[in-house]
Amino acid sequence: MNRDQVLRALSHLEDPTYRKSVVELNLIRDVMIKDSRVSLTFVLTADDETRKTKFQSKTVEALQAIGVEDVHIRFRMISDAEKADIEKPAATDGHHTRMQSEIRQNVAASILSPESGIEFIAVASGKGGVGKSTVAVNLAAALVRQGKKVGVIDADIYGFSVPDMMGIEEKPELVDKRIIPVERFGVKVISMGFFVEDNAPIIWRGPMLGKMLRNFYTEVDWGDVEIILLDLPPGTGDIALDVHQTIPHSKEIIVTTPHATAAFVAARAGAMAVQTNHEIIGVVENMSYIECPHCNEKQYVFGRGGGGKLAEQLHTELLAQFPLGAADNALSEPDYSPSVYKGDSPMGQLYNELAGRVIDKLHK
Known about the structure:
This protein is α/β, with parallel strands linked by helices. The chain has 2 domains: about 5-110, 2-Layer Sandwich (GMP Synthetase, Chain A, domain 3); about 120-364, P-loop containing nucleotide triphosphate hydrolases (Rossmann fold), CATH 3.40.50. It is built from 11 helices and 17 strands. The strands form 5 sheets. It has an 8-stranded mixed β-sheet, sandwiched between helices. A 3-stranded mixed β-sheet has the order 3-4-5, with helices on one face. It has a two-stranded antiparallel sheet with strand order 1-2. Helix 7 (about 205-220) packs parallel to helix 8.
């Protein structure tokens, strides 16, 4: 349950004074959501007890219809300033458009609130080259196969790779001044790569990058997503810190290889999560082994034990160990992607298991 769903559920309620939707008039305020309980403020445009009673019953009925169990409504009268704002002479098309824009911006900003109901999971690593982005995109696709509504923010703004890894060739659309993310394998995707021509290098300073990342939260129409995965840049730099500060309720998965040095460096990313009060839900060990296709013998070319040792050090769980490999996808296939494994492939099934474990973690 999130604020956007609440507003949509109440958008059919019409204010008798102005003959417009109470949502359009911005009469629904202070929406707070916790579990299956919703509390809100309803601004009345007339001191009419009958109208108040009707809005009480209609609001409860509409919210119960979308699964809300407990509804708490605070009623108050509209202020003179609020009334004047509605009744401005320019309050036709221009004002209507502005109010709708403000409502959309409030809804967009609310995705960062814990009350939105959206689960943010940052996928982090201590160093590059450990397969962090591969884990992020395949976990996203596997979560969709588990019935979840998923988005991915490619927050690795210097080293964006998600669009290419998922085989995305189109660009996001701009509809009514909102960015519509590209959907691939059922996953909604936004990336710096969509806004850079010909793979040009990014030479912006940290504050500009941080602003671009925040636009991904507030200017993108994420719709009814339940989980947003953030593919963080490796290490503990400005962007990773910005994510930790902006979404303090985000959970985190640390990706490493079994090599002792990779695990040692990944521990710094884990320590950053701990210091910023982020919950680490587990460690994923990538490139754990190579499996012989003929005899099924496993060769541990990068050593053994790094993921387990890291999980122990961070007081969390080793969620998965993935072998070294590449997606067996043909260029001629309509859903071709270089890095997303099919759900019925051996690696796809391993990612399905990881998705199930992540869902269990989120529901605890």
